[in-house]
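Changelog-adjacent note: as of this version, every example in the card shows the full chain rather than a window. The one below runs 361 residues end to end.
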Amino acid sequence: MENLRKGFPVLEQYTYLNTAASGLLPESVWEFRQNHDLDFLIGGSVFKDKQADALTETRELVGEFFNCEPSKVALVPNFSYGFNTLLEGLKKPQKALLLENDYPSLNWAVESRDFQISYAEIDQNLEKNITEAFEKQQPDFFAFSIVQYINGIKIELDFIKKLKQKYPETLFFADGTQFCGTEAYNFEESGLDVLICSTYKWLNAGYGNAFMLFKDGVQGKIAPKTLGFGSLQGKYKAHEGNFIGKFEPGHQDTLNYGSLAEALKLINKIGLTEISSRIESLSAKAKAEFTKMDLLEESVVKRNAHSSIFNIKGGDKLFQHLRSKQIIVSQRGEGVRVSFHYFNTEKELDLLIKEIKEFGI
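Full-length structure tokens:
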């Protein structure tokens, strides 16, 4: 376990329980970034001539990691850019289904456009609420986060797959930013039409890079209007009017997308099964302990499966107390949000619980 922690210097000075806000930069990714810019410094355009190969490697690594053909993987700078480009390619008006209080970058993007919007409530009956909303509204598209950023509620992915089978004409758009990198996910066999993910959290790839995965049937239903010289550059974008090229109109950043490639190589080296197992074990213990201490909302306690993100009771004073003990967490909603990644330990969870008890909750 200690070997997995050595690649993250932040862990030497903090108890870092805040991946849900910002993942850590691994030393291996930092080293790549140093070498990348040194090569650019001394090579200029000679180095940049290799740009297409670098982007191809990243696209293929993402595709292999999530079981999606590389020709259906778009590299974008962040979730918001990709999602807004996607929405601009939809014919309007359309009926949209969202989740109440979902991540602002998702809901705001839909709400700022001329869609007829309905909502499903996020609680212990999330899937039932969504089912009822579908029966009532028959939405043209359903956009949602797989894991909720405030309290960590995770939607049942088998439910999404069955729902898509029942409503094949509805487009399913998912934000995987709080999910991707925590467990294996087979996009091709999923119920999603589009998965979008910023990779600075659980994939530990740094900022400025994200990806989009597409199913075959999407191209006939979405017509992005963005276009640029970069839209036609690269192994998988060679023909005019290609679909993923419309999400990549300009010069692509090999530093940031190369960072994503290095982050995926690190995860592959550790093993996603190992990572998932560690996260699941910590999450189960945390939920059990927090439940005994009456720190969680009812909607989280009553659900069987959960992510490794928890919102515990306590306001600014608890937050400041934990920070004074070098325990890094976030304030979200009405509580304090803690999150556990594979480099965290039961010892750190025990320390958190000890400090919460000493604080007096």
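Structural remarks: The chain has 13 helices and twelve strands.
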